Amino acid sequence: MVLRLRPLPCSGFIYRGGAAMAFAAALTLAPACDDSADPEPNATAASETPPPPDSVREALHTMAVWRPLLSEVNRAELFAGGLLIDFGTGDQHKYTRGGFLTGWGDNHAIKVEGHTVTAGDIIETSAKLTVVTRGDPKELVMRVSSAVPEQRVTVSVDGKAVGDAAVPKTWATVRLALPAKILAPGRHHLELSFARSAPADTPVAAMDWMWLAAQAGKTAVVIPRGIPLRVGNRPRRALFSPGSRAYSFYLQVPEGAKLAFHYGAGKRTLFSVTAETIDGKIHRLFGTRAKAGAWQPAVIDLAPVAGKTVRLELRTEGSHGKAGWADPTLLVPKSSLPARRTLTRRPQNVIVIAIDTARFDAFGPFGGHDPFSGNAIAMPAYNALASTSTVFTTAYDAENWTKPSVTSMLSGLYPSTHTARTAKAMVPEDVRFISQDLHDAGLTTALFTANAVVSDTFAFNRGFDTFVNNSRGEAAARGDAMHLYQEATAWLDGHHDAPFFLWIQPVDPHTTYSVDQKYWSKYFDGTYSGYIGPTFEEPEQFALSRNASLAHDRDRAFIRALYYGEISSHDEFMGKFLDEVKKLGLYKNTLIVITNDHGEELGDHGRWGHGWTLYDELVRSPLIMHFPPVFPPGKKVSAVVETVDLSPTILDVLGKKPLADAEGMSFLSLVSGRPGHLRPYYAIVHGRGDGRAVRVGPWKLMDGDTRWHALYNIADDPREQHDRLGKVPLAERMCEVYLGEGLATLDKKQRQKDSAIRRRFSASEAKLDPEMRKKLDALGYL
What we know:
Elements: H1 20-25, H2 56-62, E1 63-68, E2 77-79, E3 82-86, H3 93-96, E4 104-112, E5 115-122, E6 126-133, E7 139-146, E8 151-157, E9 160-167, E10 172-177, E11 186-194, E12 205-213, E13 226-231, E14 234-240, E15 245-252, E16 258-265, E17 269-277, E18 282-290, E19 296-301, E20 309-317, E21 323-333, E22 349-355, H4 380-387, E23 390-392, E24 395-396, H5 402-411, H6 415-418, H7 434-440, E25 444-449, E26 466-469, H8 481-495, E27 500-505, H9 517-520, H10 538-546, H11 553-583, E28 590-596, E29 601-602, E30 608-609, H12 616-619, E31 620-621, E32 624-626, E33 636-637, E34 641-642, H13 646-654, H14 669-672, E35 682-687, E36 691-696, E37 699-704, E38 710-713, H15 729-744, H16 770-779
Parallel strand pairs: 22-27, 22-28, 23-33, 24-34, 25-26, 25-27
Antiparallel strand pairs: 1-21, 2-15, 3-12, 4-5, 5-12, 6-11, 7-10, 7-12, 8-9, 8-11, 13-14, 14-21, 15-20, 16-19, 16-21, 17-18, 17-20, 23-32, 24-31, 28-32, 29-30, 35-36, 36-37, 37-38
Helix pairs in contact: 8-11
């Protein structure tokens, strides 16, 4: 194989793609000149300290692997004489928000000098990037090609044009001098504005790489990040780091964590490890000069930054040549991970109860009270089951309203992939549900709901032998939880002798809030004589969201009492259903899952209802899973999980093959101790329109529509009252890294690979009869 490997005067190499092993062997050709501009000019070099003892093998034996950094190298920011962005790989997405609303499209393969490389498509005439700089870059260098002739690009920084240049149709390196201090250390927005648009469905241009060079006139060193590297007589998988180079990883450091690695170089090179915390303090954890020609082991205790959000930086300084960090791995005490459990029993049956419009914080393990009044919410049935279940304390729904959320739960696909996101959209024919897989595997399948959206009109009957929707016609009189559970119980009486999959989705407590006084009086003192009662309708929600002055404190208290009364009423009838499950002897062989499809705003952030914002009261799930042989009773799992993982997990528990197209992954390993789930755990949430959110550790970033642009520390601020956007840049940047990755590569199995892989279905519109149109309009979906 011919590699695009060219020694350049005092500049290292340019290389993209191809055989990494052959490249590693060729490193002996490295020029010896010193061209090592400090990647972080304003930083003080780490003081040299003796390396830790040779305990890598011991650490690997006594601790558990938490995160191999080589497997997520594209999450790292790379500084090599300036910030270097490698387009066409996962590296680009933390700067382009995964292409979401930034003018960037998919990656594609190209031929350059007979060799295949990847590039990032620019699909709009204005393409945006977000970068965090360190020094004062002197030049913007980019390898780019235009899709049309006579193209010019204008570069703006933070809204100010700094220059323009011609972009040829052939691949070329374009240079643009930068004004002094225009990219001073900190966060900046770059925009590339192209003079000419391309034909429809054709990218305007393509980008190979971009470099914010600390010195003008230099040549970028674009090389593989992780390669087999031979130092002395020993090849190791390594994070390649010739000359002055720094890799920065954003992460939450677990308690008791350590970083283990071997470091080596062909020449004497300074290796250092630092960790910056959100208060701006830099902890210098390791610093030494490597002996030439040999790998040396090191284990670093991360106790100084345990439990904190950090930017962990692995940095080298020295002449060009072979140097690298071999298998850098974050380790945690084995006691901090779930013990390995052999699954000796699997359930025969599955019952999923998706409580429509249920706020997570109404449920006992998640608070169990009205955050406004402090009243405890009566949910004895759920709380009793939760006490003998595994509770997932940080679970997130895929979207903030019913159709896309339920589609994601049933299919394991994110909303932007399955595309069933509008009021009239049908679930695309090619989207496969768990009900279809389980039906084909011999289980009897049934769904009972009173939500007009989850109907055969939109193809939700797919794979169900029995499909009951009590939202229309005469059946609407049986749409409350009492009747729905009665019908589900009757079905169960006739089908419990053979394996089954049963999905129940009561519409309580969706509007209209209409519940007997014996339930709402638990949460409201005295009688109510205001204009709201005795029910609260959808139009009133809209009106109150637009004009808060329409209601006084007592009116709002009564609305909330009606809502929580609906919650308690539902719990009563769910409890009776669960009692029947016990009487039928099904507890011992049935997996019971309780979640929601989304939550409800009760004036928390000025709005009422759902489908508007991405605050936790709308997108957190009260997820519990009950089957003691697999899910330990009383266990709480704090790792972030998503309901898009629900079907993959259920199939894993049953011992069935995963859904072929699912983007979610089973989180069974969180309780079984088996390897298999992707770390780190984070959630991507879609909103109606152009809203997205990401939850990483305690931090949550909402992005897209300006009214959603905010950053919260959920651990310190669970009600999301104190926006930290712009105040905690390190946490904001960490969230951006994962948001970009998640939006570009929704398929979790692919997130560790170099290029984004996108797959989208195409939802058609269902033909709505007058009754369905009226029903959707009443629910606020038209």
